[in-house]
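User: Structure tokens for this complex, please. No commentary.
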Amino acid sequence: MDLQQFLPYRVAVLAEALSQCVGQVYRERFGLSRDEWRVLAALADGGSHRMVDIAARSTLEKMQVSRAAARMEAAGLLGKLPDPDDGRGWLLRLKPAGRALYAKLVPMVRSREAFLLEALTPEERAVLDRALTRLGQRAAQLLSQG
Amino acid sequence: MDLQQFLPYRVAVLAEALSQCVGQVYRERFGLSRDEWRVLAALADGGSHRMVDIAARSTLEKMQVSRAAARMEAAGLLGKLPDPDDGRGWLLRLKPAGRALYAKLVPMVRSREAFLLEALTPEERAVLDRALTRLGQRAAQLLSQG
DNA sequence: TATTGTTATACTCTATAACTATA
DNA sequence: TATAGTTATAGAGTATAACAATA
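Assistant:
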């Protein structure tokens, strides 16, 4: 068997490389961790969201969201409001500083993504899109079966 | 911007899922770490290889290879022979126990990979193959430029 | 001077679960 | 009993660089 041709390995190597590409922006230029960047992106619609929803939208654990949110609150990027519908919960919402950061950061990562995608034709992108989705579904199936 | 549609995020999530699928085999059933599994796979051709070559073939740091090899040597999976061509180096080589482990492990991860790929037509697989390669090249380009 | 492999160290991440307060 | 969020802790993984031996 050839490791170089093994799909999980290839995807892992690519993910690592893409993560570094994007990380050069959010980590090195803006001092955010990966989790903080995901929380920022998950709040991008400008709304207020419960932590558990942010977790679902960002593929993070509730604990990771809690910690990232605490750091971002301390940095003045977001605020925590009591959830009016549930006394246990909080709603997260970007503050102006968080929105400003987002507005600077997103065009930069977007243009990196665009550069990456220039490697593919529109048809290839469509296939890739489907492939990522379907492989994810199959992987979930395998994982649920053990 | 929609995190769910962002390519680096999608690839990261998929890589995580695929890594768990394969990890269920090499970690949970055979007690190997990811690095040890990669070293095992990189020695799969039955030959003797320098650590620096294993590192290149497995996308690991020389330090990770050194540590993984030390653990695998202690476990009797591989042996270290002095490199006849370079007094500084060692050649790694699977021992019978390592080859036996490999022979049991590979069919299992192979069948998982095959199950995953059933989600795609042969044409889609070919496109995915090209896409992974080209995206990796572009990412390397971005990283080298900063 | 550069390279192979080893070791040290500090740091980050991850996983698990205990814990509180509400539902 | 179950859920939202917080906190604690231990273990794993990562990054950096110093180091000895050899090229």
